[in-house]
DNA sequence: CAGTATCCGACAGGATACTG
DNA sequence: CAGTATCCTGTCGGATACTG
């Protein structure tokens, strides 16, 4: 199953690698959120803007362009009045969505564990340094 | 399978969500690379520094601290001369590694498709704008 | 509605020097 | 070796205003 990554990691691991590329793309602030949302189905610009909470118009445009250029998102323009543009996942995008969803699920399942670990870590580091209070 | 994310997306999708949190953590430049590398087994600071190509000493420290505080990485100090510190994945880290590896594999499998899409996109956008040459 | 163009602040992260 | 402390730059991304 993991033979692909495994062998790659075993050899040189880094330098020029597809994982770095992938992260440089969808590792940004919004890509994953947009892909997840589009996983529900085709959606228009405005709708996405409202759905993906906190994203600015500019960043939605930028993100969609990037995803489109990577072949993950399909953009279809309808010459209506007022103009309308629909975005949807390409088959490639769907194939990625699977893994992203898995990651999202992991995040939800282990949310508590992470918070617990953070609390433990804070407690541990709080007493370690010779407390220099302000 | 996806019912977790799905129902969440269906409701409000965004706002405060575990996926945002996860991305804010491991969505940075190095976390995923380090986790992938540690997936091979315990490794010491220097070794990691050499293995994860391109990372600076500072960023390795910062990244490891973050991963440790999230409970994904375990840090063990050996009081030797010279000092030695070993890093390894916690069970939680391993559970995440599974999905990250899947993503890494996806990246490798679809590397060509993405590049193809990018070429097509460049070609398409190259003629659209009223070429303003430098 | 669906963008594009600017401006700008915040912060991620690289380089370097120093410590136990 | 395994860090910490500083400094400094690039760029990510938010706010705002304008266009077809």
Automatic annotation (TrEMBL), chains A, B:
Superkingdom, natural source: Bacteria
Species annotation: Parasedimentitalea huanghaiensis
Keyword list, A-Z: DNA-binding, Transcription, Transcription regulation
Annotated HTH hxlR-type domain residues: 17-115
SUPFAM superfamilies in the record: Winged helix' DNA-binding domain (SSF46785)
Coiled-coil annotated spans: none
UniProt-recorded Gene Ontology molecular function terms: DNA binding
Protein's recorded name: Transcriptional regulator
Stored InterPro entries: HTH_HxlR, WH-like_DNA-bd_sf, WH_DNA-bd_sf
């Amino acid at each position: 199953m993991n033979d692909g990554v495994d062998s790659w990691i075993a050899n040189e691991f880094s330098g020029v690698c597809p994982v770095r590329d992938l992260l440089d793309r969808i590792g940004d602030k919004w890509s994953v959120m947009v892909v997840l949302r589009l996983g529900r189905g085709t959606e228009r610009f405005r709708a996405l803007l409202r759905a993906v909470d906190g994203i600015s118009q500019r960043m939605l445009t930028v993100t969609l362009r990037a995803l489109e250029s990577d072949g993950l998102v399909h953009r279809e323009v309808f010459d209506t009045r007022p103009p309308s543009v629909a975005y949807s996942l390409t088959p490639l995008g769907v194939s990625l969505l699977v893994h992203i969803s898995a990651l999202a699920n992991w995040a939800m399942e282990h949310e508590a564990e992470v918070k617990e670990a953070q609390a433990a870590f804070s407690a541990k580091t709080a007493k370690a340094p010779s407390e220099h209070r302000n």
